[in-house]
Amino acid sequence: MTTIVDLPAAAQDATRQPARRRRRARSTWPIVAVLLGPSAILISLFIVLPAVYGLWLSLTNTQLTGFAARDPKFVGLDNYAYLLTSSDFLASLGQTGTFLLFSAIIGQTVLGMVAAILLSRPWVRGKGVFGAAILMPMVVPEVVASLAWASVLATSPEGTLNRLTSLFGAEPTSWLQTVPMVAIILVNVWRGLAFAMIMFQAALEDVPVELIEAARVDGAGATQVFRHVTLPLIRGPVFLYLLLTTISTVGVFGLVYFLTRGGPGGQTRIAAIYIYERALQFSQIGIGSAASIILLVIVLVLGVVYVRLAKVKV
């Protein structure tokens, strides 16, 4: 004799939920495909496939001219071995690190934080003019900004900076020849300061005022409040900005090329300039692609470090 036992209502609902989820997934996947399909196709065509093709080129001796242009051959890791033992490429990585450290990680981050703090203070006057002056470089195209700064830093006495220094009795100076790295660092800080200010100002607005007031009641000064209260609360946005500015600064090309073309004597030959010279001027597409892959790996490592430091789960 068989005994039939009725399942409780909760058990029946538990058995029905997986079936409901499957039916819901089957009914919603066409909508998801329609909404995300165009973006996925564009990302695949313009990001994923070029990256894979660039990786393949880095393993060949492809050139724009000569016999290798007609019949490229697979050379494995020879291009990478050449680059990692090339003093020119290693020097370009060093120049890129200097440019990144002082223009993005230190310059834009520190000055952008200072600007955001000043705009958040109620006692600061002329916030509109101050904010507009910082935001203006953000809307200027890179080529226009490069040409404008080339005029400011011109060697002739008619250069804007030379005119200013002549008021104090100084002789005309070739700024892009004497201090080329300092010049491009300052220009890049000028270009990226607005984005840093916007991100940090948005982060500061999310800091609870009650915590700041409580710290002040306990006797903490402005520096202590910022260090122990504000900065830990905006740690995520700060490292997110560092990640974004690292990616954009490593890829800077037009600004440096129009101002110095990597000179004088390779003092400003950052990795982007080196890749351009190898791939297009010397027609060595394989070596240029390998240099790009190495630079991509370095940026990915820095990105992982930023995410770890920010303690953001991705």
Characterization of the model:
There is one protein chain. By secondary structure, this protein is mainly alpha-helical. It has 2 domains: 18-68, no CATH class; 78-310, MetI-like fold (Orthogonal Bundle), CATH 1.10.3720. 74% of the residues lie in helices and 0% in strands. It contains 15 helices and no strands. It has helices spanning 9-57, 67-70, 78-84, 87-120, 127-135, 142-152, 160-166, 175-178, 180-205, 209-217, 222-233, 235-250, 254-259, 271-281, 285-310. Helix 4 (87-120) packs across helix 12, helix 9 (180-205) runs antiparallel to helix 12 (235-250) and helix 12 packs antiparallel against helix 15 (285-310). The chain is flat.
What is the CATH first-level class name of the largest domain?
Mainly Alpha
The CATH architecture designation of the largest domain is: Orthogonal Bundle
Number of beta strands = 0
Q: Tally the helices.
A: 15
Q: Looking at the structure, what is the overall shape?
A: flat
- Low-pLDDT segments, ≥5 res: 1-5
Major β-sheet annotation: none
- Measured on Cα atoms, how large is the radius of gyration? 27 Å
Q: Report how far apart the termini are.
A: 57 Å
